[in-house]
Amino acid sequence: MIVRDEPLSRHTTIQIGGPADLFCEVNSVKTLLPVLQSSCELRIPAVVIGGGSNLLVDDKGFRGLIVKFVNREPLYLDFPLLTVSAGQTLRELLEYTAEHSLSGLEFLAGIPGSVGGAVYMNAGAYGKTISELVRRAVIIGNDHELQTVSPDFFQFNYRSSILHACPRIVVSVTLEVSRGDASAIRKECERVIAVRAGKHPKPSVPCAGSYFKNLPPERPGENRRAAGYLLEQAGAKSMKIGGAGVYSEHANIIINTGNATAQDVLELGKKMKKAVFEKYNIMLEEEVRFLDAQKGII
Question: Which of 6, 85, 159, 188 is catalytic?
């Protein structure tokens, strides 16, 4: 069902965003395809979203159709390949892999959002990324036809993929997993979640995740340099604009302290970025994507 003037703050983890002219939630590819075809024929701009993490929506909402894709078709295992619907949450994926003694994805524990969003952003942690495990994917192309693509199609990079510049909709992803011990897998997931909990806000605190990307390593073989460290040294933890503030335990996370607007977040991000540039002559790059009311995701 398509509804009018749906507040997008209800569909992002930072709980910010004005109304979409049109909004619908679909739970299958069979439903999604005709919706996209119709929007194209009627020349209505359409944007597909997933779990709403790593996303900041314009206070004006969106002048077009927002489609929330929540397909959760059954996972299919043909070991060592595991095919997952893009609408599956990472939490649901990890629950499945632990239950079936499948290892390799534990580093994703505690990361919010959907599998499709993880591919879009090339999500990862602790030196690992989901791109290392992708073996193929099914996407919807510009012609609204299903296509099977290889990992090379995505041109994965740090926290990015070709999908940023060349929007396509991920329908499902096939990942390579390995056999493991269910108890050990659960313990590792719990350990990773505990580490994240020490630095990240509780799930009940509205935020979009890390606001800026970490920096490349200074020398080959070294880890990336944490943007949070530079931000902390530049005094970002004390910064706040309107209802948007920097999280007290992690200088690279902006939280909605109550009634924050997208403009508050954007202005705070600029202030944080300027502080690091003035102290280190380093220009940070945003990791959180912005959904502009007219232009879509930029």
Answer: 159
